[in-house]
Amino acid sequence: MHALKKNHPLRRIVLASAATVSGMVLLLSLKPHTTPQVAVQAPATAPSGGSSAGTDTGTRTTITGDSVQTRWGPVQVRITLGNGKLTDVTAVAYPTDNPRDQEINSYAVPRLRAEALQAQSADIDTVSGATYTSDGYRQSLQSALDSASG
User: Fold this and answer.
1) Residue 147's closest CA among 89, 88, 62, 90?
2) Is pTM, for the whole model, over 0.85?
3) Regarding the domain delimited by 54-149, which CATH topology (the fold level of the hierarchy) does it fall under?
4) Cα end-to-end distance, the chain, whole Å
């Protein structure tokens, strides 16, 4: 006769209890997931409002784009032009209010910068998972480029 037949309910109870206790021990022994510590450069203070500021240092020109308000906070970039080419793009403001914003923007901002430098324009792809930051970045970048062209 099989060990788990109806005439042996005590064995079923013991086996079910042992399985439950084993499962709980395994579950409780797992380490909880911790959010990785993300190093985020603190945004520099930038002109509020939509004005663009620019400085000319010889053949290099630095222009700050408009601050674009997104759902999660303002996004603003500063570009450097050298000999008519985009040589640097720096995000001076972007959402960093909570760990999730920091996590998203720690990978989105460098990708957006690389795309902008490669494209030499604001015609860049949206970073998956960072749609609002990408849109704000693109708009601020375009305003800076528009200011540079006169």
Assistant:
1) 62
2) no
3) Sufe protein. Chain: A (3.90.1010)
4) 92
